[in-house]
Design goal:
This protein is of the alpha/beta class. The protein has two domains: 40 residues, no CATH class; 212 residues, Rossmann fold, CATH 3.40.50. The protein has 13 helices and nine strands. The protein has a nine-stranded mixed beta sheet, sandwiched between helices. The structure holds zinc ion (ZN).
Length: 351
């Protein structure tokens, strides 16, 4: 979809023409001095520069990349998804469209936050309380059944024992019978935030060990069952981080849900009440931005959708989607034992 057509749709949907001049400055593909003999393996991601968080500097793409579109019916009915984040704004910013899509397609979902988010508030205590509320509200806006928090100290998670974080996740994965996880890529390159890497690593280990009969076997004595985690959606932190992308999820249908999930983050992140603050600031100068609407609630929604989600639109355009999110996806492994047995049945000869 061309930018003009998309803007036309947005105008029809309630946005005003005032935003067009701003979008006209959207940068194109950056100039490269790479000599022709080199094949680029990392690709700069186009950005509107309206959001500091939604676009990594680069992605590398796998040659079997899949664009995941809406699936009719409820193909995931009976399956359980855990969306795990170090901080209350991680899933909202990077993966809320995909989580909302998977829930709509039948998953029962849980939101698990590992830190206490104390570093994002007027004071440490205020940050803990506000982000606790935000995490609950983001879970509701997403459609999650329940939210959990581990309350490790914000930006200090590398001081925590990995084995404890991992074991707590294994307990939850088994208790909830998780099939699929969405979380930060444990190999997110150049991420400055230590909590993100810890979260990704703990989840990856927990996914593997949750199905084991020998690890934490006392869980089974208490009535828990192994959790078979077959699918992982790993996302990269922006802008410093980047990862290998082999799945682009079309979140066009779920963009308004993603906007509301981000609006729930009042304590941190670029969304919250930023639209209302801009509207009030302009009113004090005797001005208004028509796209922000006529009240603070509309201003918060439109601010997030028009400015903060714009990079998801630019990214999606490259793959034929109105809005999209990017992942390193790891799916179900082939049943190699069945394949070997099948080969043996077909090729065995009398001994
Ligand atoms: Zn974070």
């Amino acid at each position: 979809m061309k930018r003009r057509e998309w803007l036309g749709g947005s105008v029809a949907g309630g946005l005003a023409l005032g935003g067009m001049a701003a979008f006209a400055q959207t940068p194109g593909r950056p100039r490269s001095d790479l000599p022709a003999k080199f094949a680029p393996s990392a690709f700069a991601v186009p950005s509107t520069k309206y959001s500091p968080f939604t676009t990594p500097d680069y992605y590398t793409y796998a040659d079997d990349l899949v664009v995941e579109r809406n699936r009719p019916g409820k193909p995931h009915a009976g399956k359980v998804l855990a969306a795990i984040q170090a901080h209350s704004d991680d899933i909202p910013l990077f993966a809320a469209g995909t989580v909302a899509k998977l829930i709509d397609e039948g998953y029962t979902a849980y939101l698990i936050r590992l830190s206490n988010d104390e570093a994002a508030g007027r004071t440490l205590g205020y940050g803990v309380v506000q982000n606790e509320l935000d995490n609950q509200n983001a879970a509701k806006a997403l459609g999650c059944k329940k939210a959990y928090s581990f309350y490790y100290r914000n930006h200090r998670m590398d001081d925590c024992a990995m084995i404890e974080i991992r074991s707590r996740l294994i307990f939850l994965f088994r208790m909830l019978q998780v099939n699929t996880v969405v979380c930060m890529d444990p190999y997110n390159h150049y991420d400055e935030n230590p909590d993100h890497i810890i979260a990704g690593k703990a989840v990856e280990g927990a996914c593997w060990m949750s199905g084991s009969a020998r690890d934490y076997a006392e869980h089974y004595k208490a009535g828990l069952k192994p959790a078979r985690i077959r699918e992982k959606y790993y996302f990269a932190r922006s802008p410093q981080g980047h990862n290998l992308v082999n799945r682009v999820v079309d979140i066009s249908t779920y963009i308004d849900t993603k906007v509301r999930v981000n609006m729930a983050n009042k304590g941190k992140g670029p969304a919250g009440s930023a639209g209302a603050r801009l509207r009030q600031e302009l009113l004090q100068q005797g001005k208004k931005l028509p796209l922000l609407g006529e009240d603070d609630e509309a201003a918060n929604f439109q601010y997030v959708k028009f400015f903060l989600m714009a990079d998801h639109h630019l990214f999606g355009q490259q793959f034929g989607c109105e809005y999209a999110e990017a992942f390193r996806y790891i799916g179900t492994e082939p049943n190699y034992v069945d394949n070997i047995r099948k080969y043996a049945a077909e090729h065995a000869v009398p001994a």
